[in-house]
Amino acid sequence: MMTDNYLLKLYHKTLKYPFGRALFSRMFAAKAPYFKTIKPTIEVLEPNHCVLTFKKRKAVANHIGTVHAIALCNGLEMAMGALAEASIPKHLRWIPKGMQVNYTAKADSDIRIVAKSDPAAWQVGDLPVSVQGFRADGTMVIDGTITIYVSEKPAKKQA
């Protein structure tokens, strides 16, 4: 895959190594240390599409033994961030603006998060990114939208 996107280049480069997905996922999670709390693995990274997974374990469980809401939201935010970095045109930048989620079922298994955006939407202004989480049996456990604000990068100052 030929691309000039730095994140996609790094992703495809690491996939050539044993445990490449795990290596890439750890490097990306280090950008925002709270991502590391869920120990995610980015399974798929393409422009406008990201899939990540994480295991249900004690560290992400709540008092009733299901994956807690903040762990789910961390997964949504990480998938959205990877999607945004892999998709945004070079002359633009982004920042999260808001998140709306609905918890739709008990998250009582390992989790798969899917983030998607419209390729034509990468323009200045608000951009909604669809984010959903699924348990192992395919049941959706969280459904949301993360709105990011996209703006032009400032012009570089001449020395």
UniProtKB/TrEMBL annotation:
InterPro entries in the record: DUF4442, HotDog_dom_sf
The name this protein goes by in its record: DUF4442 domain-containing protein
Signal peptide: none
Pfam families from the UniProt entry: DUF4442
SUPFAM superfamilies: Thioesterase/thiol ester dehydrase-isomerase (SSF54637)
Lineage start: Bacteria, Pseudomonadati, Pseudomonadota, Gammaproteobacteria, Alteromonadales
Provenance organism: Pseudidiomarina andamanensis
